[in-house]
């Protein structure tokens, strides 16, 4: 029983971090390819080496940071819209149909800029072109 416990402890210590390491692509004679987690065996040469690290805590921090940035963007956006809604000219809300003091062209530009700020990491080229086309159409 004591030997089994000792073996389990030694095995646990020998394992280390199973989620971090490197993968080596080994190219052999005749185009054979193998992947190993250490040095390539004799008779093969290294093709590439990739490091990997399954840092779940870091991923969770990154997700929380993105959520916090989104919340901050939403708060600032709401405050900006509320300030625009309070714009008054001569004691009454500015004309323009919506009461925000902006014409259609300015509203469309402002909307495009807010969307670009929010989606800057995931925005596609087609989405940017569509937003610019919408501004061009509104500002004719």
Distance between the termini: 85 Å
Estimated radius of gyration: 29 Å
Strand content: 15-25%
**Strands across the major sheet, in which order?**
2-1-3
What does this structure look like?
The chain is α+β, with helices and mostly antiparallel strands and about 140 residues long. It is built from four helices and five strands. A hairpin with a 5-residue loop joins β1 (about 20-25) and β2. The protein starts with a helix and ends with a helix. Residues about 90-95 have low confidence and may be disordered.
Strands, helices and their partners?
Blueprint: H1 2-15, E1 20-27, E2 33-36, E3 45-53, H2 56-85, E4 88-89, E5 92-93, H3 104-118, H4 125-138
Antiparallel strand pairs: 1-2, 1-3, 4-5
Summarize the structure in short.
This protein is 52% helix and 18% strand. It has 140 residues and is an alpha+beta fold.
Write a concise keyword list for the protein shown above.
140 residues; single chain; elongated; 5 strands; three-stranded antiparallel β-sheet
């Amino acid at each position: 029983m004591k030997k089994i416990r000792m073996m389990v402890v030694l095995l646990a210590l020998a394992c280390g971090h199973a989620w971090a390491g490197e993968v080596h692509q080994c190219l052999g004679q005749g185009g054979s390819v193998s992947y190993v987690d250490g040095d390539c065996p004799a008779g093969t040469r290294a093709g590439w080496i990739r490091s990997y690290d399954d840092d779940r805590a870091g991923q969770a921090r990154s997700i929380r940071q993105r959520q916090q940035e989104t919340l901050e963007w939403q708060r600032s956006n709401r405050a900006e819209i509320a300030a625009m809604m309070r714009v008054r000219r001569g004691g009454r809300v500015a004309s323009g149909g919506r009461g925000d003091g902006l014409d259609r062209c300015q509203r469309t530009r402002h909307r495009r800029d807010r969307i670009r700020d929010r989606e800057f990491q995931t925005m596609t080229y087609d989405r940017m072109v569509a937003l610019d086309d919408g501004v061009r159409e509104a500002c004719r």
